[in-house]
């Protein structure tokens, strides 16, 4: 396949669906790890086209969604200070903190700017030597190389007014946390192709073997996802639990060694809190001692901020795959994209936003606490 349209071909999709229907003889529950995959699934109605035996559980793979509330509050505190230019990707501006968001800070006079790359923030630091420039460095392994490069460049250029507020998370420890949770029903994973394009697949065989679950590295177009589901179901029916690469046009076994070297030079593994889930050991990165001078949390002394999640928001259960968004009483009522309670309703990759955007407002809540295949309204 040479062109993107081929990955949306309805005839090829029907062939894959027919094979999935023919293969699945027992109920299986698969988790797609990435929020980009979730949006593609909901947008194209893939979950509605699958056999009743195959359920898709939405995982925690949205970097905006899993950024913990306390880090949002640290961002708000830093962005409110005079002399600071606070830079972020656009989604983060509407993620609610304890009592406001970055848009509110901007409206109150804070210099909050949307950028498209950490190197844009680095350029702002170069052009504004009298201002402190902070970049909100969130994300999974995918965005870590660019953020590491920005810090590396800042040191090379001698820019002392540039720093990162880091909230990087790692996928393999999250998979382990999901599989060891008492309520876990996941029997197979569609692994995030963009993460594996950076880090490779070396960390996954041990997880697949230990938890006896197939893990299929999958892309984001409809046919990518259907092919990932087909391979995962085939393994489950055969009693296999291997790592397969269904995204070879972007993913190599070793990943991107140059990007990994850059990450390992600038960052070190640490425990990290995930919004709505809690602290997961070894699930994040922080700047190493050699680059600690560029750590905004230390520079602005905001490490002591602690918060509590709002009780009415069930985003943590959505992120763990325990419920579908429509099972939350606040969904579409007190929680909408204009008045979000949690990041899953804000982010362009959030599961709640996907359900709201693609006309699932009338989907009846399942009565099983997430178990079984949910009945949903047809996608228009």
UniProtKB/TrEMBL annotation:
<dbReference type="GO" id="GO:0005506">
    <property type="term" value="F:iron ion binding"/>
</dbReference>
<keyword id="KW-0408">Iron</keyword>
<protein>
    <submittedName>
        <fullName>Hydrogenase formation protein HypD</fullName>
    </submittedName>
</protein>
<keyword id="KW-0479">Metal-binding</keyword>
<dbReference type="GO" id="GO:0051539">
    <property type="term" value="F:4 iron, 4 sulfur cluster binding"/>
</dbReference>
<dbReference type="Pfam" id="PF01924">
    <property type="entry name" value="HypD"/>
</dbReference>
<dbReference type="GO" id="GO:0051604">
    <property type="term" value="P:protein maturation"/>
</dbReference>
<dbReference type="InterPro" id="IPR042243">
    <property type="entry name" value="HypD_1"/>
</dbReference>
<dbReference type="InterPro" id="IPR002780">
    <property type="entry name" value="Hyd_form_HypD"/>
</dbReference>
<dbReference type="GO" id="GO:0070025">
    <property type="term" value="F:carbon monoxide binding"/>
</dbReference>
<comment type="similarity">
    <text>Belongs to the HypD family.</text>
</comment>
<dbReference type="InterPro" id="IPR042244">
    <property type="entry name" value="HypD_2_sf"/>
</dbReference>
